[in-house]
Structure formats: structure tokens, C-alpha cells
Amino acid sequence: MLILFAIMGVAIFLFIRGKHPPDLVAGSTLLILAFAGYVTPKDVFAGFSSAAVITLISTFFIGEAFFQTGLSDKTADYIIRYLGANQKKITLAIMLVTGLVSAFISNIAATAIFMPTVSSLSKKMQIAPSKLFIPLCFSAVLGGTITMLGTAPNILASQALFDAGLKPFSLFSYSLPGIALFISGIIFLLFFADKLLPDGNGEVPNPSENIAEIYRLHERLFSIKIPKGSPAAGKTLVSLRFGSVLGLAVIAIIREGRSHLAPKADDTVLENDLLVVRGRYDRLSALFQSETFKLQAITDRLYNSLTESFQIMQIEISDQSNYVGKKVSKLYIEEESLLPIGIKRKQRFIAGNLSNRMLIPNDLLVVLGKEIPSPAFKSLSQDVQSDLIRHLFTLYIDSSSPFIGAAPDNLNLDEMLGITPIAIVRNNKIFSANGVEIQNGDLLIVSSEPSRAEALNLVRGLEPNPDAPLEILHEQGVAVGEVTLSPRAEYAGKSLADINFREKYGLQVLALWSEGRPIRSYVGHRPLKMGDALLLFGPITQFHLIKKDPNFLVLSGIEDAPIKTEKVPFVLLSLCILTVLVAFHIQPVHVAAFTAALFLVITNTISMDDAYRRIEWNIIFLVACLLPMGIAMEKSGAAAYLAGNVIKAVGGYGPACTMLSLLLLSSLTSQALDSSLGVILIAPIALRTAEAMGISPYSLVMAVALGASIAFLTPFSHRANLLVMGAGGYCVKDYFKVGLPLTVIAVVVLMLTIPLAFPL
Questions:
Q1: Which residues of 616-630 are buried (b: 16+ CB within 10 A; e: fewer)?
Q2: How many helices (H) and strands (E) does the chain have?
Q3: Region 293-312: what's the mean pLDDT?
Q4: What is the pLDDT of residues 519-565, one digit of tens each?
Q5: CA-CA distance, 492 to 616, in Å (whole number)?
């Protein structure tokens, strides 16, 4: 048993740490349990054929039908027209429709389906998005508790009863406590959430505003004129390297009064062109205006003088080195005599833009210092020295330079421009670049990539202007729109550069909304997270293409008619089939759900391909791998052991206190772990506890299932919460402020209503 607890403990740690995908952790844990003998070969993959998995797959089919027919939008529009344009009525409409839909499909799918509708409503009805998106996702989670189909914990709890030889829950077994929970939650959200939710930084949409203003895009848009005789004229955008060198994104070229919007990388700029760009004007204006800014290759004579004044050494980073995993920017602080100036990594020499690079084993770190600090530092090999010389440049400082009076390490040149200051030559003497202020007439020695130095020389003399013609964002044929990562996104953890976003989708990323704030500079190499929203600009045709991509949900920017409105009756009929089959005990829930799902395919409401794309296979795999863990808990005696401890701790206070403790344990577990895992681990304990105390197992297992759905405290406690984080502009504390009182209310309601459905 101790080995089982150790295996489970490691799995829980990996789930919480979040470094590895949860489905991978679940699959690996399942195999370890199999090899350790806790799960028989017969039971290892039993989860994949379980009723729980079949039911989950069927709900994704039904969810795709809601999406394909536009039923959600149609229903929402009808209720909104009926209730009027008042904010409270709009919020009530959103919560009612989302909650009712969520009762029959995955609550994550329900949230995703209604997000574009809510985004559109926030603009049309002049309501801040922050006031609507948490009510949207919380009502989806609450609505999912009404039936067995709405959430995975409900399905898994029913499966736990079946595996224990008991009659499983039916479709509407959860309805009494679920409806009470839903109504009480909606009342709280309707009357109190508005006061607790942020005001969206004061940005309440109105007819004259647009999403670009909500992102405060005007703070990062400016224009650059290509003057006559500029070395940049005649160059393509890709060769100018504005993005990689300066952190700029060119969103339009205005030539002879005509706008060329969302230009491609191979488009050429000409004299007198006006470029509309996104970036940091305050950082770059002085650079553009400095006509003397020119990087020149270091001469042999100056390099020899540098080596006479300083030691230039290399050290190989071994597996055991203290430098492994450290940022290069930290090394000068720790080794006061050393200044990192380059890295030889395999066959590539890296210079410039060093500050945030991590050292890895087998790197050759090149440093400059007054003396050799230890025998580990050696003289440069011939090939490293040749590489270094090719990456060293000089920059002459005259009276017009914006760098005069500043110390090189305070200019942030390495991060901003990708050039690393090394030394200053003044009156035939050479000083280290650290701590010495730059003066008129100095020669600054820097390291950088040759291609970067060439690109920096091309921008010399360009004419920046802090103003930009924002009206181009509204020209015909283009749109500014917002997208967020979908629940099925493969791009979480990857940057825009990693996925070649601009080339793949033909849209320009103007800004990124992450953790409650807009990010408008250097967004290309920032890893994307679930909940992030992207502000895009480009042709409307490209928005139609990205809308079909399963990695994204388009929140705004284009209006699309529902695909198959004539199929709405078939969706409603499928729900009727499901309800009748279960209500009259003709078939169990998983058979009824699969029948309803297949009916939608047969009637051509959805295609099998569409349904397969809608299924979140990672959730299916996760649940299928988790189910045998419950078997391992039961057969090993771990469930009985833990149940005994529960009875010892709270059993003396009566069945109600026992139910409360299991409900709270399940709820707390779901805040940190996937709610499915919480049910898998705690349901066997609830069953054993009920058996030992002689009380109803149904009430305890239902408490575990519904407790797992009370996941409101953080954006990470439920994927529906995380999904709306960027769209609503939320930070972590916003969820806690609304979620804590809602959790308290939910616990009280469940403690009162579960015994009414299943007496203890």
C-alpha cells in the first residue's frame, strides 16, 4: 500500500507542477500501476471502453451540433430581445442560456460556444467584457451540475457506483441539488458579481470605441518615414528585420496616399513610404534620428589593443558546472571580474542579445576580464577567436548621440537592440564598458550578430513620428479582431515565432492580453498560455480562415452567419431522444447519449470529421487512464484505509459532518488538480466510508462529484475559468474575489439539498 501511495503522490505532484501534460502523467502512472501489479492486464485499458468515456465523447458530438447550427446564438438573441438591453438582464440572459446548454454538453464546450456571443454583446450593449465573462464561465460550471452529462465529475461518479456493483446515477439524479446550486449561484452573480469584478481598466465599450482602444494600442502605434537616400529604401521588410532587431511590426505601408495593409515579409519599401508600425517609440526615436549610428567591423589593430588591455578567455560549461541553467546576465554580478561577450554553442557563435540566454552543458562561454579567475578559464582557441572577431563592432559617439552621459549597462542595448557593450576607447585608453559613462568622442566596442549589425545600419536616418493614422484599422476589407486559444489548442507553451503565425495565418499580431494586462512589444517570442487573447489585424478573409482553425476561438472582428440553421430542429430532437431513452429507462445514459450523437450525424447536422475535431481527446485520454486508478485504490485496500481515517476524524460527528468533509476535500482538490482526478481518488473513499458507517453511498458520492465542480477560486481550477481569462482581461485575484463567496454559498446549498435527493 505504501508503494501505491508513493506512486499516487508522485502523480499528484506532477499534476500540480504542471510541467508535463496531465494526460501524459495519467498514462504513465497507469502503466506504472500495471507493472507494479496494482492493476491487472485486463483492467489496464478498461477505461477506454467504459460508459464514462462513451458518454463524454457523445457530449462533444452534441456540443459540435450546437456550434454548427448557431443554436446558442439564436437562443441567446431571442432571450436578449425578450429581456431588453439592461446590463442585469443581459447578464441574466447569458447565464440562463449558458447554464441550460451546459446541462447537456461539456461545460467547457458551452463556455467556448458562447464566448463570441458575449464578446459581441459587450460591445453592442456598452458593457465592459470584465463584467460578463466570469458570469459566463461560472454559470457554465454551475449548469453542468444539473444533469449527468454536463461535467466529467458527474459522469465519473456514476461510473464509480457502477464499478462498485451499485446502480449508477441516472441523467437527472443530480437535478435537485444541481438546480438549487444553479439558481443560488445565478442570484449571487447577478446581484453581487458586478461589484466584485473589475471595471476593465475603465474601458466600457461605446459606439465610438473599438477593441484597439481597449488594448490601448495607440500607445504603441507610430509611423516611420523612409527619407530620400535612406539605405533602407529598396529593401524588403524581411531584410530590414524590423521585428527581430527592433521589436517592431509593420502593419501598413502608405505609398502616394494609398494604404497597403498587412504587408508581407517580401514586400519592398521605397523612398517617401510611410510605415505604420507597432513598437516602442520612446526607446527607438533617438536611434532613428542619430545619423552617425553606424556599426563597423573591428580592426585588427583595435582588437590587438583590446587583448593587451584585457584577458579574453573561454570556459567549457560541463554538466556539473555552477553556470548551467543560469542567465548570462547574472554572471557579471557573481564574478565581478568577468564580462560575458559571446557563446560558442555547437557550430554556432552567439553574440549580442545575451542577457537572457541560459547556459547549457557543452557551451563555450567567452568572457573578458582583467585576470584569469581560475585554471578552468583558458585562452581562446583559434576557431573561437576567429568567430569572436567576426562578431565585434565599433560605434563612434559624437555630440548628436543619444547615449552620451549614460553607462552602457544602463542603456539596455543588449535587450533592446541585441548589441552587447564590451569596452570604451577614450584617448587611446581602453576601459571596461561596465560602470563608465559614455562621452563625446568615445569609441564603443560591442559584440553582435553580423546580420543584426547590418540591419541596424539600415535604419540610420529614418524619420519616426509618434502619431499614426489609426483610421487604416477600419478600412474596407480589413478588420481588427480578437482571438483566444481554444480548449483544444496545440499552441499553449509555444510562441508566435515557433508556429510561424504571420506566415501561416496572414494576420498581424498587434498586441497580446495576458494576466489582466495588454502586452504590445516583443510579443513574437513570448510563450502563449491558455487564457491569453491576441489582438489581430488583417484581411477579413484571413479571419474567416482562422475561425475554422480548432486552435483558436474568434471573439470579435467578423460577423458570420450560422452554418446550418435549418438543422436546429434536429439538435432539439436529439436532446428529446436522449431524455426519453433515459427517463423511461429504455437505455442507460451512455447508450442514450451515443444514440443522440449518432442521430446528429445520420441527419447530416454534423459530420464525423467535424465531431472528431470537436472532441477534446486529451480529456478522453486523461479520463480513460484515470479510471483504473480507482480500481487500484479499491483492490489494494487503500480506499478502505483512507475511509477508516475519515471515519476516525469526523465519523463521530455524524453522517452530515462526514458528507461535508468529503465535499470540502473534493472541492479543495479540484482547485489544484483536475476535477476528474479528484473524483477518481475520493469516490472509492466515499463508498468505503458509507459502507463502514451504514449510510447511503449515493449521498456521499454525489457530494464528491458536485464538490469537484465547485472550482471557482482561481483561473486554473477549471478550464472554463482559464478560457475566459484573456477575453475578460482578468487577473488571478478577480476569480478569488467572486469565487470565494460563491464557493461558500455552494457548500451550504449542497449540504441542504443532497440529503433531500438521497437521504443519508
A1: bebbbbbbbbbbbbb
A2: 32, 20
A3: 90
A4: 776 677 778 887 788 888 887 778 877 877 878 888 766 655 456 77
A5: 15
**Which of 461, 457, 459, 431 has its CA nearest to residue 443?**
431
Burial class from Cβ neighbours inside 10 Å (0-12, 13-18, 19+) for residue 272 reads: middle
Asked if 681 contacts 639 with a C-beta cutoff of 8 angstroms, the reply is no
Q: At what angle do helices 152-163 and 697-709 cross, to 10 degrees?
A: 160
Average pLDDT estimate for 91-110: 87
DSSP, res 555: E
Distances (CA, A) of 616 to 60, 403, 640: 8, 54, 34
Residue with cell 564598458: 433
- Residue 201 predicted with pLDDT over 50: no
Question: Cα torsion for 9, 15, 16, 18, to the nearest 10°?
Answer: 140
Spatial CA neighbour of 591 closest among 102, 52, 45, 175: 52
The three grid cell numbers given for residue 317, joined into one nine-digit string: 560549461
- Cell numbers that stand for 204 in this block: 466600457
The pLDDT tens digits of the residues spanning 724-743 come to: 887 788 888 899 999 999 99
Q: Grid coordinates 559613462 are at which residue?
A: 437
Residue with cell 498514462: 27
Instruction: Write the single-letter amino acid at 25.
Output: V
Q: What is the pLDDT of residue 207?
A: 36
| Greatest distance between any 2 Cα atoms in the chain | 97
N- to C-terminal Cα separation, the chain: 30
Closest C-alpha among 260, 257, 263 to residue 240: 263
The residue behind cell 444514440 is 595
Can you tell me the distance from the alpha carbon of 723 to that of 490, in angstroms, rounded to the nearest whole number? 14
Read off the pTM.
Answer: 0.67
- Counting other chains too, the contacts that 518-524 makes at CB distance below 8 Å and 24 or more residues apart are 518/215, 518/216, 518/217, 520/215, 520/216, 520/217, 520/219, 520/220, 520/278, 521/220, 521/247, 521/279, 521/280, 522/247, 523/496, 524/243, 524/495, 524/496, 524/497
Residue type, 398: D
Euclidean distance between CA atoms 377 and 51, whole angstroms: 64
% of the chain surpassing 70 pLDDT: 90
CA-derived radius of gyration, the chain: 31
Bridge-based pairing state of the strands 463-465 and 221-225: antiparallel
Question: What number of other Cβ atoms are within 10 A of residue 343's Cβ?
Answer: 20
Tell me which residue of 123, 125, 142 sits closest to 193, measured CA to CA.
Answer: 142
**What is the reported pLDDT for 140?**
92
C-alpha cell at 183: 439558481
pLDDT band of residue 112 (cuts 50, 70, 90) is confident
The yes-or-no verdict on residue 22 having pLDDT over 70 is yes
DSSP 523-537: -TTSPP-TT-EEEEE
Cell 481518488 belongs to which residue? 681
Give the cell for residue 242: 524590423
pLDDT at 211: 58
3-state helix, strand, coil in the chain (%, to 5): 50, 15, 35
- What residues have CB less than 8 Å from 189, skipping those under 6 apart? 91, 95, 134, 135, 138, 139, 738, 742
**Quick one: which of 504, 506, 497 has its CA closest to 478?**
506
CB 144 within 8 A of CB 175: no
Grid cell, residue 557, equals 472582428
**Can you tell me which residue has the cell 553574440?**
351
β pairing state of 533-539 and 463-465: unpaired
At 200, phi and psi to the nearest 5? 70, 40
Task: Write down the residue that cell numbers 548621440 correspond to.
Answer: 401
d(C-alpha 646, C-alpha 637), whole Å: 14
- Listed in sequence order, the residues at least 6 apart from 682 whose beta carbon sits closer than 8 Å to its beta carbon are 662, 665, 666, 669, 704
Residues 6+ positions from 234 with CB-CB distance below 8 Å: 268, 269, 270
Would you list the DSSP string of 490-514? S-TT--TTTTTHHHHH--EEEEEEE
